[in-house]
Design a protein that fits this description.
It contains nine helices and nine strands. The protein is of the alpha/beta class. Strands 2-7-1-8-9 form a five-stranded parallel beta sheet, with helices on both faces. Bound molecules: guanosine-5'-monophosphate.
Length: about 220
Amino acid sequence: MKDKGTLVVISGFSGAGKGTVMKRLMEKYDGYALSVSATTRKPRPGEEDGREYFFRTRDEFEKLIEEDALLEYAQYVENYYGTPRSYVEEQLQAGRNVILEIEIQGAMKIKEKIPEALLVFAELQTPEALLVFVTPPTVEELERRLTGRGTETAQVIADRLARAGEEAEGMGQYDYILVNDTVEECVDHLHQIIVSEHSRVSRNAEFIADIQKQTKAFQK
Ligand code: 5GP
């Protein structure tokens, strides 16, 4: 069975620990590629162009949209965020699982747009993106993680929790809910979900057709 890359979309509440989980997934397992998004937001201290994001001006970003260089994009708190198409296509073609860590509007666009948006999907017979939503085990824990940083004002915490309410409405649109209790378990679980996805019948049409053809030859 030829292993092909899967496009994996990860979303989740602010404070769910997505970033830590993705970092650990890359370190622990082979065969993954993390997509770096373009954004118009300003870099935070310690962030580097091309590593966390491709930091672009509004004009530059709008040019990317015009050129159809983005697989999806969304506006989030007055800034644009988008996924460069070419990297995703190259990595899928190379058989890697590509991870997009994006917010819910972008996730829904990917769900609707695939397979038309990506020619490579037709070639690879991988018509489905896998959508995973990451959450802390309880709402109390979400609150604790958000307040625990100690750096945010009560208003910022209240805003983020209010956003969590909006995001929770979309949870039912995802394929899997991933509980981030301990990072190590969460990473292993995510890896298992992705590996299982490779065995999905709809992703192995060519392999199945081949077996059917060969076994047909045994019939009298
Ligand atoms: P931050 O500014 O905190 O880095 O990111 C804000 C939000 O934008 C997060 O929810 C993050 O997942 C989302 N995001 C990052 N890159 C992209 C992207 O390429 N497309 C979309 N739709 N959302 C993104």
